[in-house]
Amino acid sequence: MKTNILLKRITRDPGILLGKPIIRGMRIGVETILNDLANGLSFTEIIEQHPMLDEKDIKACILFAEKSMNELDKLKQTA
Considering the entire predicted model, what is its pTM? Predict the structure, then answer.
C-alpha cells in the first residue's frame, strides 16, 4: 500500500485526545498503538483489544512514527 494512503488514516482533531494523532478520527491514539507494539503485543492482539482497527491502521501508526522521526532529524540538522 502506498505511503500517502496509509498516512491518511492518521488524523488530528483538537476535540479528541487534545489534538494528538489518532487513527481515522477515532479515540485511539497513535501513541497507544505504538506503546502496545513496544510492549510486545502482536498486530492480532492489538486488533483483539481494538476491534475497529485493522492491520493497515497499525502499519499507518508505524509509518507515522517513522516520518515524525525523520522530520525531527531534519529540524535538528537545521538548528
Answer: 0.89
Residue with cell 487513527: 23
- Note the Cα 18 to chain centre separation in Å: 15
Contacts 24+ apart (CB under 8 A), 74-78: none
Q: How far apart are CA 1 and CA 51, in angstroms?
A: 21
- The full set of domains in the chain, from first to last, is 3-78 (1.10.10.10)
| pLDDT tens digits, 45-65 | 999 999 999 999 999 999 999
Contact yes or no for 20/29 (Cβ under 8 A): yes
CA angle 45, 5, 33 (to 5 degrees): 25
